[in-house]
Amino acid sequence: MYDFEDKPELNITPLVDVMLVLLAILMVIAPNIVYEESIKLPQGSLSKQLSEIPPVHISIDKEQNVKINKDNYQLHEFMDNFFLYSKKLDLKATVLISADKTLDYGVVMSVLAAVKQAGFSEVSLATNG
Known about the structure:
Layout: H1 13-29, E1 56-60, E2 65-68, E3 71-74, H2 75-85, E4 95-99, H3 105-118, E5 123-125
Parallel strand pairs: 1-4, 4-5
Antiparallel strand pairs: 1-2, 2-3
Helix pairs in contact: 2-3
């Protein structure tokens, strides 16, 4: 008859070995898998060329003198004068603001606010990098 004292044993060592080999294969192959989707882009206008818009440079020294390209202003005069000055500039131009690091944060932010109110959308703050 049947011997109930014999209990079946399950040896999982081969299963673990196979899984570790599969895991190692997957880890080696995964970085090399590249998914690429082909996209057909529309044709652009070849007759229209990009024009170079000169950037506007604004610098503020530690005495709070503001220089726009080559014109000098005092900080308290800058807000109104920049709005008038911006009428002769292209609003798509990039504005680069350079300020002395000892200046108060509020001074730089007031100049930035005046630039934004004048209608410029691309404004960068210069840093020593």
